[in-house]
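Whether sequence alone determines local backbone shape is best considered at the level of individual chains. In the encoding step, the backbone of a single protein was reduced to a row of integers, each denoting a local shape. For completeness, the protein is quoted in full, as a sequence line and a line of structure tokens.
***
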Amino acid sequence: MAVPEPDTAVVIPAKDEADRIGATVTAVLKLPGVDLVVVVDDGSSDETGRVARAAGARVVRHSRNRGKAAAMESGAEAVRLLDEDAPRHLLFLDADLGETAEAALPLIAPVRAGEADMTIAAFTTRVKLGGHGMVVRLARDGIKRLTGWEATQPLNGQRCLTRAAFEAARPLAHGFGVETGLTVDLLRKGFRVVEVEVEMSHRATGTDWRSQLHRARQLRDVGLALAARDPKIPSLRRPTP
């Protein structure tokens, strides 16, 4: 099987992921058709940026934590500036995937073949989460209410998009509402969105107070993303990433 010409860039938002980012970058650089990995160090207090660069990534650093959506925007802009030929597809991955990031190829294939404008990962191996699924239900129900499409894993951040689809979804929803907003916006604009099963996994959130705070922020951001896109609330403006 012929190796495809480089046509896909990987963007990895990362904060305090020095222990895993190196393995993640090393894994994605093995993907056929990927020769550019951009890690956005989103205000880390550890060696995330240094480790990512040593593994072969280009690194963009935010001096303070600006959130996932802002990191995705910065990474995509860096790819645009580094593109030498045609615009690349954008594969967004979480920083803590480690070696399992090497299994991301099925996300790229439908976009590369022109069969989808955005793919969303559905992990075949489900880790036990510390939460109770409230945020997932909110996102799934909201997406279905606003578009008629039911997602299996609506909050999954592993996604491959064409550059055109990414630009059509800007400005992105704020913070942890970015995945929900992306899905709603692209479906409403007629883009083709499909879920793809992949053998990937990342670190599960726990039950300590930091994890509970993380889920509270997710709940807030997903709720805001849905409210901003609900035609019943026309006066509510999108938060700026």
User: Anything to note?
Assistant: Residues 87 and 163 are 6 Å apart (CA to CA). The chain has a mean pLDDT of 90. Helices lie at 21-28, 48-54, 68-82, 105-112, 134-147, 163-168, 178-188, 209-228.
